[in-house]
Amino acid sequence: MNLGAIKSPRDFRDIQLVQVQAPVIFxxxxxxxxxxxxxxxxxxxxxCSSHSGAHFKQLQEFLDIKTWQKLSPRYLWIRTKQIxxxxxxxxxxxxAIFKTLQNxxxxxxxxxxxxxxxxxxxxxxxxxxxSLITSEIDDNAQPRVIKNYAFLNDLSFEGIKRAIYQNKAxxxxxxxxxSFF
Length: 181
Prior knowledge:
The protein is mostly helical. The chain has helices at about 15-20, 50-65, 75-85, 95-105, 125, 135-140, 155-165. Helix 2 crosses helix 3 (about 75-85), helix 2 (about 50-65) packs across helix 4 and helix 3 crosses helix 4 (about 95-105). It starts with 16 loop residues before the first helix and ends in a 14-residue tail after the last helix. The model has no long low-confidence stretch (mean pLDDT about 80).
């Protein structure tokens, strides 16, 4: 059963974080303030990969320009489902999320809102409608492309802690099933 993020197939072309960042000594305590990050509702659909990708980019934007810009997980979802190779599957690969951020960026939330909060009857098919993306929306997303991404190869507690300290955030896939709740 799949409830969201799908494990990315191994790709030996992936850049590992350890290849581009030297280890550092970090403090005993590190508490980043991300308390202002908005909560997003998935309406029971496995959209966590696009929601976490939009949050990840929001945090990057905040660290760069010191203001919160609400970004659209719906845009990220629709664009990612075009390239992930599993368009009918609920959920997606984190690699595909990063590839979408690299190729397209992500638009302002108001241009393509995550409207489950306003209308919980919206179906996944309606949410995923590619025809909603206009050239104006793509143009708005383009300045928020990422240059590159790297995979965290050290998944130990210390490795994850180091990656968060050095990069301020990491995007991790955690296997969740109904017994998780």
